[in-house]
Write a structure and sequence with these properties.
Blueprint lengths: L1 H21 L15 H6 L3 E7 L2 E7 L2 H4 L5 E10 L5 E2 L1 E5 L17 E6 L4 E2 L5 E9 L10 E8 L2
């Protein structure tokens, strides 16, 4: 019974939303600014090798040659701040090509490319607007200890 009520509720919401949008054909639905550039495209090629140790699956990052070329190089990345802790300012955070606050079903179509950012000096204020950073790309030697396989260290905000 609960499933039927949930299904009917979701169907009603979808029909109502569709009808509301069609009543306003000139309505521009807000969207995010595309952040994908050549560096993000390269980062997005990272894959995982799956192995088994005992009864557990182990996922080991695999960096293709094109991505390995960027290790220890200074890169510039536009993106959206994804905080790792609460607060207004952050010296360590994730940077994503998508604004996570806009994604109500985050993770349903895969996880967008993200890197972990370590600011060189101080902290930056959280914003929902895109930012651009510059820093040195490093691969996390122990991905199970940390938040991301790819990190940008000594990062600076580019105005």
């Amino acid at each position: 019974m609960k499933n039927l009520i949930l299904l009917l509720s979701l169907t009603f919401t979808a029909i109502t939303s569709y009808g509301q949008i069609n009543n306003y054909p000139n309505l521009k639905v807000p969207d995010h600014t595309p952040m994908m550039n050549q560096t993000w495209e390269t980062i997005d090629k990272m894959m995982y090798k799956v192995s088994t140790q005992g009864n557990k699956k182990v996922y080991t990052p695999h960096y293709p040659p094109e991505l390995k070329k960027l290790e220890n190089k200074v890169v510039e990345l536009p993106g959206y701040i994804v905080p790792l802790t609460s607060g207004r300012t952050h010296s360590t955070f994730m940077l994503s090509v998508l604004p996570v606050t806009q994604c109500q079903f985050c993770g349903s179509n895969g996880i967008p490319p993200m890197v972990e950012i370590f600011m060189k000096k101080g902290a930056i204020k959280y914003t929902e607007e895109p930012i651009k950073i510059k820093g040195k790309m490093k691969f996390n030697p122990e991905p199970l200890k940390g938040n991301a396989e790819i990190q940008i260290i000594e990062a600076e905000l580019i105005p």
